[in-house]
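We include the pair:
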Amino acid sequence: MNPDAITLVVVADGRRARLLEQPRIDGPLHDRPEWLADVKEHHDHAAPSHITHSGDARDRAEKAFLTGLAKRLEGLAAKHHFDQVVLIAPPRALGHLREALSPGLLKKVVGSDPHERVDATIITLEAAVHAARYAHAA
């Protein structure tokens, strides 16, 4: 394991996202809101939150948001040459995001955390990244 690996941490929930950079394994996380400056958050006021079947408007909107996010990640990965990626999202959003990532970027995923953490503190996210990385290695 390269201790100087640069990691992109993707935190999403199907409507919003945060991107963070970790310049070395288990190093501090740095929020990078500028990487999402022109990505619009999805606001779903039409579908009740309890509707979860795959054909509904909420699911389609969530998939569209996460597909757009995946495209953004491809560009960022090419520009910043990340060595690793950690994904943090609720299970359904995590699945949609994995489906939307290219095979090349999927190979860089070194861990994931299936929880809602978009509003989490940096300290909570650092702990989640650490746990996801080492759960994947085990």
